[in-house]
Amino acid sequence: MTILSNGHQWKYTEFTDNKNYSFNKKEILNSLTSEEIDDAYKSISKWKGYSPTPLLSLNKLSKELNLNKIFYKDENKRFDLKSFKALGGAYAVEKVTKGNKDIVVATATAGNHGRSVAWGAKRLGLSCKIFISEFVSDARGKAMSALGANVVKVKGNYEKSLIECIKQSTENNWQIVQDVAWKNYTIVPKYTMAGYTVMMKEIADQIQEEKITHIILQAGVGGMAAAMVAGIARYLNHIPIIIVVEPDSAACVMESIKTGKIEKINIKRESLMGGMSCGEVSLVPWEILKNSVKHCISLPDDDIAKTMKLLGNSSFSDDKIVAGENSAPGVISLITSCEDQAIKEKLDLNEKSNVLVFGCEGDTDQEMYQKLINQN
Fold first, then answer.
1. 31: closest CA among 197, 212, 208?
2. Is 191 in contact with 95 (CB distance < 8 Å)?
3. Rounded to an integer, what distance in angstroms lies between the CA atom of residue 213 and that of residue 360?
4. What would the pLDDT profile of 274-310 be if each residue is shown by its tens digit?
C-alpha cells in the first residue's frame, strides 16, 4: 500500500566510498566530550518543569511497513516551547552568561532556536535581541516577543539575519548565542549541541532492553543530527544505521559528504521545512557527521502536510500526535525507504528492525499547523 503520494521525487544516496566513514566513538567524543554531554543533562534535568518527553510507538505504521517497532520521540511536549530546541539555546544562555544579569544575549533564528534563547534569557532575567528574516512568520516572531525578547525583522533570508545579528552584537557588545559555528566561534554551538543530547539520554533510558537498529535524523546546519550521533556514542552500546534527511532544496550535508568537505548550497526556494532550510553545514557538527554518515535522503515538501495530518489523526499510532513541519521528514523517509524494495534491503529494514524517528517539534506555529493539516 502506498501511503504517501510523491515517493518518486525523493532521493536516496549511499556513500559507500565515504573514505572518512568510521564511526569511531572516541573520535566523535573528542568533538563533543562525555563531560560536556553529562554536564548538560545534569543542569537541564534540574530545571523547573523538566521531564523526559514521551517515546511513542508508531504501532500501526510499523505493522503496515512490516517492521518490528517504530519509536517516535515527541518533542511537542518539551517544556512549554514544543521543540527540542528548548534544550539547546536556553542551556547555552545559561553557560555563557553564568548568571551575569548585565549581559545582553542575541541570536538569529528561523524560529525555534530563538524562542529557546528568549526563554533561557527570561529564566535568568536577561535582555534578549532576536533577529529574524522576512520569511519567518509573524506568529513565530510574536512568540519570541511574548517571552520578552526584542525581535528585529531583517530583509532577506536567514543568512542576512545572521549577518545583521553579528554586526549589531559586535557594535553593542552583546553576547551572540548561535546554534551555528564559524571560525573562532565554536564554544557556544557546542553548548547548544550538548543541550540536545539530553534527548538521547532520555531515549537510552526509555528503550530499556530494546535495541535501536536504525535512526533517522533531520539536518539543517547539522546540530541536532551531530548531537544525536554524539549521544549514541555516549549512551548506546551499539551503533544503529544512521540516515540523515534534508529538504531537496537544501541538502548541504549530502553534498558535503559527497565531496568530503563543507559545501555551500545556493537555496533557490525556501522549504516548508523552515528549520531545515539551511545552505551550509556548521563547523562543529561537520566534524562529527563526516565520520558517521553514509546514508542520506533528500525530500520535496509535497508530503509534509499529509504526514502531519496522518500523525494527528491516529493513522500511524494509537496516539494523536501534534507534529510540526520539521517533524514529518523522518516518517516520510522511513515510509519511502520501505516502499522501495531495493533500498529497504540496502538499509536492512525488516521485521526485526526497531527504528527511531524524531518528532522534533509540535505546532510551534499554530496558524501554519492548522492550515497544513486542513489541506485536502
1. 197
2. yes
3. 20
4. 788 888 999 999 999 998 999 999 999 999 999 999 9
| Residue that the C-alpha cell 518527553 belongs to | 53
Residue 203, class by beta-carbon neighbours within 10 Å (0-12 exposed, 13-18 middle, 19+ buried)?
A: buried
C-alpha cell, 182: 564559524
Q: Which residues contact 264 (CB under 8 A, 6 or more apart)?
A: 252, 279, 280
Q: pLDDT tens, 175-207? A: 999 988 888 999 999 999 999 999 999 999 999
pLDDT tens digits, 259-275: 999 999 988 888 888 78
Furthest CA-CA distance within the chain:
59
Return the CA Rg of the chain: 19
List domains and CATH numbers for the chain: 7-83+192-373 (3.40.50.1100), 85-184 (3.40.50.1100)
User: How far apart (Å, rounded) are the C-alpha atoms in residues 336 and 92?
Assistant: 36
Instruction: Indicate yes or no: pTM above 0.70.
Output: yes
Grid look-up 492548522 returns 370
